[in-house]
Design a protein that fits this description.
The chain is an all-alpha fold. Helices cover 53% and strands 2% of the residues. The protein has helices at residues 43-65, 69-95, 103-116, 121-133, 148-152, 162-167, 174-177, 180-187, 189-203, 212-235, 256-261, 268-273, 290-300, 312-322, 332-335; strands at 7-8, 11-12, 100-101, 304-305. The strands form 2 sheets. It has a two-stranded antiparallel ribbon. A two-stranded antiparallel sheet has the order 3-4. The two termini are 33 Å apart. The chain binds stearoyl-coenzyme A and zinc ion (2 copies).
Amino acid sequence: MPPQGQTGGSWVLYETDAVNEDTDAPPVIVPPSAEKREWKIVWRNVILMGLLHIGGVYGAYLFLTKAMWTTCFFAVFLYICSGLGITAGAHRLWAHKSYKARMPLRLLLTLFNTLAFQDAVIDWARDHRMHHKYSETDADPHNATRGFFFAHVGWLLVRKHPQIKAKGHTIDLTDLKSDPILRFQKKHYLILMPLVCFVLPSYIPTLWGESLWNAYFVCSIFRYVYVLNVTWLVNSAAHLWGDKPYDKNINPVETKPVSAVVLGEGFHNYHHTFPWDYKTAELGDYSLNITKLFIDTMAAIGWAYDLKTVSTDVIQKRVKRTGDGSHAVWGWDDKE
Ligand code: ST9
Ligand code: ZN
Ligand code: ZN
């Protein structure tokens, strides 16, 4: 089924997940637009996010000046683990089903995901499936046509657009709701999340003599705020500034700087064009894609399997059909 451009009120629909690359006609494009809307600001979130970010800046200062090197190393370790809980877990495994994972890996990724505190996987994946299906419309929770701030954090500070709730029923979550580990995480989130994201990261560094104060601000608050912001860059920067080698008709772009800090998730033009690829990138460069390294390692020990990817032939055809010309091998046929 080709993607459908569909207008209705203030929203436009792209069904990028449904594209059959070989046979289907070019996507029907309706230029994204965001009509004015009345914001219902959630002041509790504004205040908490503000305080969290002040604490994050103070934690960064302690990280750079006062904390023990072992504490700083531990904070970086927690960044990678919690990042993988989002990238390898919530995103590539659960939202996109781009590979399958055995029980031990699903348990590990649920732990890492809880460490990241970006809400329960079932809720994260629901919003993310909406983001792909209704990209850059009001049914996209972080509709980037509303600008950098809204796509980055603003969407977490206001009530959701009615279109999200109206179109929400079109998203199938039965795969996630039938997973007992994910059900357990969601049911006990308000106990598990504070314990895993804040209490343990603050307590563990005291075992090597760090003060509870430094441990709390560096390993819990600064590390959390940092991971939140780099994650949000995928919604903001990676929908605004960069090349579109695979599909010039969509907003997501390729950005190596973002990829470097989000463990390989900044190849966003590729990802929105081929969302089922477990690499979320055409090439498997480990230095910019630690998540691919992690999944490949898990596959090597048998914990991950059925890794989905896209053939070079399909990518080439798509680059030539809808790319913006920035692909490194653009025009290769001409050179033959
Ligand atoms: C956070 C998430 O930061 C970040 C996600 C980033 C995603 C990035 C993706 C990029 C690709 C991956 C890259 C990864 C890179 C990682 C790098 C790592 C190094 N469908 O939400 P409610 C309905 S979280 C269908 O309360 P309000 C539903 O009935 C940060 N239906 O809406 C729901 O009820 P229930 C920490 C939907 O009241 C009801 O509406 N967390 C959908 O408008 C109410 O839902 C926070 O800060 C849907 N999609 O409130 C919390 N959505 O749930 C922030 C809703 O019972 N959130 N419904 O089924 C909130 O406080 C609120 O959600 C709100 C909206 C105020 C924003
Ligand atoms: Zn996106
Ligand atoms: Zn995605």
